[in-house]
């Protein structure tokens, strides 16, 4: 087991997650922003043109690379169904109990037939101080922005974490301001959120495990 664990860790170029920032083994840093979506089809032609122009201005204002990640997963409706079933057992009115049971069956059938998916949108912002050399990063890790620049870099080791974080936060501010102008809400991921994001990426089958009922 230990050998297998070590072999897996060798393919993950993450050293630690500190203050919401992913620190790579080569010294590079990555920040992740969670972004809201826009229903483009409900906008008028003028609104669409304004959004496109603002987004174009945002992209033109960047002097560094960013990565846009869309995470699509099947909606796990089981916690909601468990809550409904708990409420059903608490009902003393037989008519309400029947209505709750019918609603549970409706939700189950609807989600099975429709195959509802949830989507989350992220912007990954890289910062690699004092780059000396570069090599190719793994394609799977690149999907989570760990290789957003398309390479793994070695650093000189100079500069403190706070100094490098300050540089990364300046980039984050530029991205945040640009996206807000287009009508997109953004939120910086904290340490727990980042860890959860990577955990789910490397363990996609976790949502399929049965829920332990109390």
Could you name the key traits of this structure?
214 residues; alpha+beta; 2 domains; 6-stranded antiparallel sheet; two-stranded antiparallel sheet; 7 helices; 8 strands; extended; TraC-like_dom; TraC-like domain-containing protein
Report what the structure shows.
The protein is α+β, with helices and mostly antiparallel strands. The protein has two domains: 2-72 and 119-204, no CATH class; 76-115. Helix content is 45%, strand content 22%. It has helices at residues 2-10, 45-61, 78-90, 94-114, 139-142, 161-181, 191-202; strands at 14-18, 21-24, 29-35, 67-74, 117-127, 131-135, 152-155, 186-188. The strands form two sheets. Strands 1, 2, 3, 4, 5 and 8 form a six-stranded antiparallel beta sheet that branches. A two-stranded antiparallel ribbon has the order 6-7. Helix 2 (45-61) runs antiparallel to helix 6 and helix 3 packs antiparallel against helix 4. The chain is extended and about 70 Å long. It starts with a helix and ends in a 12-residue tail after the last helix. Residues 132-141, 148-158 and 210-214 have low confidence and may be disordered. This is TraC-like domain-containing protein. Residues 21-200 form the TraC-like domain. It comes from Candidatus Zambryskibacteria bacterium RIFCSPHIGHO2_02_FULL_43_37. Pfam families: TraC-like. InterPro entries: TraC-like_dom.
């Amino acid at each position: 087991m230990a050998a297998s664990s070590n072999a897996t860790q060798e393919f993950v170029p993450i050293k630690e997650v500190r203050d919401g920032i992913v620190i790579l083994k080569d010294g590079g840093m990555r920040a992740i922003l969670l972004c809201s979506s826009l229903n483009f089809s409900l906008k008028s032609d003028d609104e669409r043109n304004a959004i496109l122009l603002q987004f174009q201005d945002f992209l033109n204002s960047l002097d560094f690379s960013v990565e846009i990640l869309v995470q699509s997963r099947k909606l796990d409706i089981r916690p909601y169904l468990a809550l409904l079933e708990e409420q059903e057992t608490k009902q003393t009115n037989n008519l309400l109990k029947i209505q709750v049971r019918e609603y549970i069956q409706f939700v189950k059938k609807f989600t099975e037939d429709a195959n509802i998916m949830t989507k989350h949108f992220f912007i990954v912002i890289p910062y690699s101080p004092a780059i000396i050399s570069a090599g190719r990063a793994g394609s799977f890790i690149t999907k989570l922005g760990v290789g957003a620049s398309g390479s793994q870099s070695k650093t000189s080791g100079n500069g403190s974490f706070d100094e490098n974080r300050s540089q990364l936060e300046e980039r984050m501010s530029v991205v945040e301001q640009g996206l807000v102008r287009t009508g997109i809400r953004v939120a910086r991921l904290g340490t727990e959120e980042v860890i959860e994001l990577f955990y789910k990426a490397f363990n996609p089958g976790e949502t399929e495990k049965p829920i332990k009922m109390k």
